[in-house]
Regulatory protein RecX
Amino acid sequence: MRSDNGGERGDATLAPVIPLFGGKAAKADAVPPRRGGDDQQSSAPRMPEWHPTWVAEEPAPPVVDGDADAAEALARAEKVLLKKLRTRSLSIREARSALAEHDLDDDVATALLDRFVAHGYLDDEALAEQLIHKAVSRKGQGRQAIAQTLSQRGIGRDVIDIALASLPDDEAERALEFARAKAASMDSLERDVALRRLAGQLARRGYGSTALSAARQALDERSSPKSRVRFE
């Protein structure tokens, strides 16, 4: 998988884009600008530097057989898709759904998506990498919740499996760390109530089979005399 900058892929200014189909509509909106704000900026795809030799290697452009209306619809669809990519990274399936609103032929839509993939605008592996970093570092989620999030974003099972395989095998430690942080607010609750509530919070974050054991250990540590240090 590609390396990231803190798990996100939008920290650099997006590279200039050669208009995909040469139309005026495409040229007018071809370069998604840098966005303000950390949360917005962090979700944008990093565009690769253009190289002239790519022209011979990239997929052929969509063909609309001289139909003026179809050509206009294609240019409009390209412009809308580029605009969406300014705001957030999209999976290929999400991009296809966006194109479905423009009545493009399936072959034309597929050719357009292939061009976006070739230019680095669409990259499911990079998107999975971003989402996993956010889920682990900001939300404290486990593998089950992460896999569900990736699936909901339209990322394929094969890409999800590869992305999750790159995670360190520290889910039990992360679950315990989360449980310890939450256990401090449950000192006033009865043991069974606190255990049920804490295990439920862990389960909702996708920690699965480790939820109950992490909750129990965190509560045991809170109730241990060694955890209650008094200063006189």
